[in-house]
Design a protein that fits this description.
Helix content is 15%, strand content 28%. It is an alpha/beta fold and 130 residues long. The chain has a domain at 54-129: Cupredoxins -  blue copper proteins (Immunoglobulin-like). The protein has a 4-stranded mixed sheet with strand order 2-1-4-5, with no helix packed on it. The chain starts with a helix and ends with a strand. The relative contact order is 0.16.
Length: 130
């Protein structure tokens, strides 16, 4: 009798666990979002960055390469490469950023701000401040 009860308990437990796998803690699904035609959409999910002014450093590129922000906005760079990168403007440069590091700075004055990676100057990006 105890074995039968234990088996039923384990089965119920597994059903509950597996049914919860497709739902995040706030009740939204974590599957790839699609529109009514089944086409993948760009709607953010819990696993995607929620920072609007985020630049990813990946595969020796700044993505996006050009970012337009409003005066006073903060921009964040996240290094997803396994090598050190920096964010180097004409007048300042970020500290060395290892894998997973994040650098943040604000832009108060409207203008166009080109930048490169100090160790890899072929990596280029631009911040446009409106």
């Amino acid at each position: 009798m105890k074995k039968k009860f234990l088996l039923v308990f384990i089965l119920v437990f597994l059903v509950v666990v597996f049914s919860a796998c497709g739902t995040s803690s706030n009740g939204t699904t974590t599957d790839t979002p699609t529109d009514s035609n089944g086409t993948t959409t760009d709607t953010p999910t819990d696993t995607q960055p929620q920072t609007a002014n985020l630049i990813i450093i990946e595969n020796f590129e700044f993505v996006p390469a050009v970012l337009t922000v409003k005066a006073g906005d903060t921009v964040e760079w996240q290094n997803n490469d396994a090598v050190i990168h920096t964010v180097k403007f004409d007048t300042f440069e970020s500290p060395d950023m290892g894998e997973g590091a994040i650098y943040t700075t604000s832009f108060d004055t409207p203008g166009t701000y080109p930048y490169i990676c100090g160790p890899h100057p072929y990596m280029e990006g631009t911040i446009i401040v409106e």
